[in-house]
Automatic annotation (TrEMBL):
<keyword id="KW-0560">Oxidoreductase</keyword>
<dbReference type="Pfam" id="PF07992">
    <property type="entry name" value="Pyr_redox_2"/>
</dbReference>
<dbReference type="InterPro" id="IPR016156">
    <property type="entry name" value="FAD/NAD-linked_Rdtase_dimer_sf"/>
</dbReference>
<dbReference type="InterPro" id="IPR050446">
    <property type="entry name" value="FAD-oxidoreductase/Apoptosis"/>
</dbReference>
<feature type="domain" description="Reductase C-terminal">
    <location>
        <begin position="312"/>
        <end position="397"/>
    </location>
</feature>
<dbReference type="InterPro" id="IPR036188">
    <property type="entry name" value="FAD/NAD-bd_sf"/>
</dbReference>
<dbReference type="Pfam" id="PF14759">
    <property type="entry name" value="Reductase_C"/>
</dbReference>
<dbReference type="InterPro" id="IPR023753">
    <property type="entry name" value="FAD/NAD-binding_dom"/>
</dbReference>
<keyword id="KW-0285">Flavoprotein</keyword>
<dbReference type="InterPro" id="IPR028202">
    <property type="entry name" value="Reductase_C"/>
</dbReference>
<feature type="domain" description="FAD/NAD(P)-binding">
    <location>
        <begin position="5"/>
        <end position="292"/>
    </location>
</feature>
<keyword id="KW-0274">FAD</keyword>
<protein>
    <submittedName>
        <fullName>FAD-dependent oxidoreductase</fullName>
    </submittedName>
</protein>
Length: 399
């Protein structure tokens, strides 16, 4: 009997890979192993719809149990892999069972980065179960301190304000989301959250957390009922590292998402790949979707290179942020109605390399999709036209 294809990690990337394998005609045995008890689901709703109570797990899931069964995908839940032996093409699960594989995908994702000391009133948001626990605490009038001004912290703050909580947000750096957005967007985020009643504090350091307050290094004491910590994600590389695979800040792969072991691939949040010559990871819906698909195709022998334009989005109250591509030193700004804006990033030949849109609702999404086409087209663009809100982007595709 032929050994199966096995996917370790039943999140977005792993789930998408399993579905793609069946869509592409793979008829052999297929096993999907997950740490969580749930079917594969998308994570963006955790800090929005799931936390608000307007979305449930079924609406976030990539498939239901009947679909997986019909596709013949063996889903092993809540039984993580504890040992990997690439030289013997086998792995061991927490219950002691060994499985051999013909090909393997590691989509092990990550876990919330935690504070050194655990506290009863401190919460994290990485999984569906985390969201359910936190949702029960976000009652009207609850005093919430959010530690971390990245997108998880900001989205939790926005959701909590919508649920009637009093929110203080602490950011150690000089601006919000400073690692991923330009200063003008950080300024817009800051203004919006303060308008919505969030007490945003920049350049602050946490001393300790008490049962009823957060203590800052400068001596300030912030009374609170609960604390949400959003200080990043820790990639789950331990299994790969113990097996002797090459790792850095993630599981390192080549252009085809193959690890240092020839029949093992990696995808999603844990995957560290080269972009513009530098290793990086991308913790986005877009990356999980694209890499899950491509890894599945390459498990089938397609030998396709991973070539993608990075991008992400975030919802903040009634506003939407959309990005695509990469930021460069040459930026052109276009004003949009109601205080929104589009930022265009050009290379030295005025070809578009990236774009960022900030606008009410989904207003910037269409422009960002056109920008992705402009990036692919590599057409030199007129900066004056880009800056003019009366000039439509679509005709620019004709050069």
């Amino acid at each position: 009997m032929n050994a199966p294809l096995i996917i370790v990690g039943a999140g977005h990337a792993g789930g998408r890979a399993a579905l793609t394998l069946r869509e592409e005609g793979y008829g052999g045995r297929l096993i999907l192993i997950g740490d969580e008890a749930h079917l594969p689901y998308e994570r963006p709703p955790l800090s929005k719809g799931l936390l608000q109570g307007s979305t449930d797990l079924a609406q976030c899931s990539l498939c239901d149990s009947q679909q997986l069964a019909a596709l013949g995908v063996e889903h092993i839940a809540a039984n993580p892999v504890s040992r990997l032996e690439p030289q013997h093409h086998r792995l061991q699960m927490a219950d002691g069972q060994w499985l051999s594989y013909a090909g393997l995908l590691l989509a092990t994702g990550g876990r919330a980065r935690r504070l050194p000391r655990e506290q009863a009133n401190v919460f994290y948001l990485r999984t569906h179960d985390d969201a359910l626990v936190l949702r029960n605490e976000l009652k009207p009038g609850a005093r919430l301190v959010v530690v971390g001004g990245g997108f998880i912290g900001l989205e939790v703050a926005a959701t909590a304000r919508g649920l009637g909580c009093e929110v203080t947000l602490l950011e150690a750096g000089p601006r919000l989301a400073g690692r991923v957005v330009p200063p003008v967007i950080s300024d817009a985020l800051l203004a919006l959250h303060r308008e919505q009643g969030v007490d945003v504090r920049l350049n602050v350091a946490l001393e300790c957390i008490h049962a009823d307050a957060v203590q800052l290094v400068d001596g300030q004491r912030l009374p609170c009922d609960l604390v949400v910590v959003g200080i990043g994600m820790q990639p789950n590389i331990e299994l790969a590292a113990a097996a002797g695979l090459e790792v850095g800040q993630g599981i390192r792969v080549d252009a085809q998402l193959r690890t240092s072991a020839a029949d093992i691939y990696a995808a999603g949040d844990v995957c560290e790949f080269r972009l513009a010559g530098l290793y990086q990871r991308q913790e986005t819906w877009r990356n999980a979707e694209a890499q899950g698909r491509l890894a599945a195709l390459n498990l089938l022998g397609r030998a396709l290179a991973f070539e993608t334009i990075p991008g992400f989005w975030s919802d903040q109250y009634a506003w939407g942020l959309h990005t695509v591509g990469v930021m460069t030193a040459r930026m052109v700004r276009r004003a949009l109605p109601d205080g929104g804006l589009l930022l265009f990033y050009l290379d030295d030949h005025h070809r578009l390399q990236g774009a960022c849109g900030w606008a009410l609702g989904n207003r910037a999404a269409k422009d960002i999709k056109l920008c992705e086409r402009l990036i692919t087209a590599r057409i030199p663009l007129d900066p004056v036209s880009l800056a003019d809100p009366d000039v439509s982007l679509k005709p620019l595709l004709r050069g």
